[in-house]
Amino acid sequence: MNLAELQSPQHREHTFGLIDETAKREIRRATLKAVCVPGYQVPFASREMPLARGFGTGGLQLTLSMIGEGDTLKVIDQGSDESVNACNMRDLITRVCPGVEPTFKTEDASIFQTRHRIPETPMREDQTLVFQVPYPDALVVVEANEARRVQMHGEADYARLFVKLYEDIVQYDEITLSHRYPTRIHGHYIIDPSPIPRYDVPKLHQSKQLNLFGAGREKKIYAVPPYTEAKPLEFQDVNFRVEDHLDDSGRRLTCCKCGADNTFLDELVLTDGSRAYACSDTEYCRRMVMQAKAARQTEGGTP
Amino acid sequence: MIRSIPVSTDAEQGLPPVLEVDGLTKVYGPIGPRTLERTGPDAPGGGTNICPDTGSVVALNNVSLKLYPGQILAVIGESGSGKSTLLKTLYLDEPPTEGSALFRDPGLPGNTWDQAHDLFLYNPAQARRLRDRHIGIVRQNPKLELNFNISAGGNIAERVLAANAAELQGHPHYGDIRQRALDLLSETQVPTARIDERPGNFSGGMQQRVQIAKALAIQPPVLLLDEITTGLDLSVQARIIDLILDLHDRLQPAILLVTHDISVVRTLASQTIVMRYGQIVEQGLTDQVLEDPQHPYTQELVNAAL
């Protein structure tokens, strides 16, 4: 078979969702198990994907295994719909899944594939959030041996994670974990909620949406089902807290584009070296700007 | 300072032993039909612990002992006599080939003296619980027991957290743990100002004291001490021994002490067991064993002491 034949339309055809049906079935089975045992890392046979491991292959396999005709897809990369990773992932999925509509809007989407953010707009019960996970095991920072980690999870032996927090407080007077904050699911397993900022961790608690976590390189799937307890680790007297986004004078920073003072902000370094802050969730920010504009127009339009 | 040798009062009061080891045998390698009888101190050629048939090493052969609450029991013998293997098996580092070890802890809620459990039948979770809550160990090499990547206080915190994991349901109190670590370090005479330093910064004697603080963090009813003064200079040895005596006076754990140093035995232990080639050759009151040794090996051992 020569190159021309390989490139002919009949050979370019592939199954819906790129991966074959048996592979999808296996991933779905792992996903179901993950939902049944909240926080438990279910091993699965991670497939080769047309992107490098560590670039979201776990999340991609989860999305491709459950997406279907009529679904609406939103892809988020660090809050943005327009970064390289988000665009390429969205193009790939919509190309191999005819009938799936891409969208930027949080309200319209049925499946979200996200890298390290949960949208600012509250989500609904009919939406599914798929996380791309680089390191699925929260215990990896304290125990290098995987066999031992599995046993530690089984026995809920998490004392050493608390020691990590203890050491943090001793050294810096506060818990310094900025992302991948260990979170206890349903009173037993502690998960690594992927590198979402601390700001997003409380959104997992009793969430309306189904949260699925896929680690392609590490071949693990785990889940935080809807209305499940998700408690970040903390001491009685040193509590978990989210980023406060206060400036030096103690005032809450606001977004330089939409003016929001209740969102997770990214720091931007401007060309003159000064700093500005903008919403990390670009879709939310743009909607706020539009709403403000519309409000101004109606104001100006009234006689 | 002259101290009297602590005498087990509980044994006289008739309390049952906190730890009752029976017929403990540990063989590394295949066991032949005559492995156990062809090894030991009385084997031909001056004794051996290597089976001539199979080449297996018999580390422990039918060792039985009773450790009473508050008692200090010493196990002495040359290197290779099986004394460290005894501690490792009792701390459940390694499974025994045969034998049982009944453990009774009056401190367990709802437990009475009548209830005893064989340690070797524990499942992994029970074994971890035993090590986390009921048995402390201090090893010759602090690197085996302490985590050198975290602070001295963190090492103690780890033990406190592990012991209380179930009660706290994931909500430990930082201030309490910190205070407990400070108290323990001052009890074991480690300068509390150095609580946040890593054990690697400490001298050997201080590392040993941090290890003792870690072992005592949960106030275990049984404490296993494995050659804790070996490799330390004499003045440090004396302070460690003094510390052990002092802590024993106040906390009254039962201590199983493994050593090859006769003077440590003389200072600390009320009862002594002499081991050779995996077997107990002599046991009794420390004074009796050291002043009037019966077995030729014990005589040799006592006479060889400088």
Report on this model:
The complex is a heterodimer of chains A (303) and B (306). Chain A has a seven-stranded mixed sheet. A three-stranded antiparallel sheet of chain A has the order 7-6-10, with no helix packed on it. In chain A, a hairpin with a 4-residue loop joins strand 6 and strand 7. Chain A has eight helices and twelve strands. Chain A is an alpha/beta fold. In chain B, 36% of the residues lie in helices and 20% in strands. In chain B, the strands form two sheets. A six-stranded mixed sheet of chain B has the order 6-7-8-3-9-10, sandwiched between helices. A four-stranded antiparallel sheet of chain B has the order 2-1-4-5, with helices on one face. In chain B, helix 6 crosses helix 7. Chains A and B meet through helix 7 of A and helix 3, helix 5 and helix 6 of B.
What coarse outline of chain B follows from CA principal-axis ratios?
A: globular
Termini separation of chain A comes to 73 Å
User: What Rg of chain A do the Cα atoms give?
Assistant: 21 Å
Number of helices of chain A: 8
The structural class of chain A is: alpha/beta
The biggest sheet of chain A, with number of strands, parallel, antiparallel or mixed sense and barrel status, is:
7 strands, mixed
What is this structure's SSE topology?
The complex is a heterodimer of chains A (303) and B (306).
Chain A: H1 3-6, H2 9-12, H3 21-36, E1 42-43, H4 57-66, E2 72-77, H5 84-96, E3 101-102, E4 111-115, E5 128-132, H6 146-154, H7 159-172, E6 183-185, E7 190-191, E8 210-215, E9 220-224, E10 230-232, E11 265-269, E12 275-279, H8 282-301
Parallel strand pairs in A: 2-3, 2-4, 4-5, 5-8
Antiparallel strand pairs in A: 1-9, 6-7, 6-10, 8-9, 11-12
Helix pairs in contact in A: 3-4
Chain B: H1 9-13, E1 19-28, E2 57-67, E3 72-76, H2 83-90, E4 98-103, E5 117-118, H3 124-133, E6 135-138, H4 142-145, H5 152-168, H6 174-187, H7 204-216, E7 222-226, H8 234-251, E8 254-259, H9 262-268, E9 271-276, E10 279-285, H10 286-291, H11 296-304
Parallel strand pairs in B: 3-8, 3-9, 6-7, 7-8
Antiparallel strand pairs in B: 1-2, 1-4, 4-5, 9-10
Helix pairs in contact in B: 5-6, 5-7, 6-7
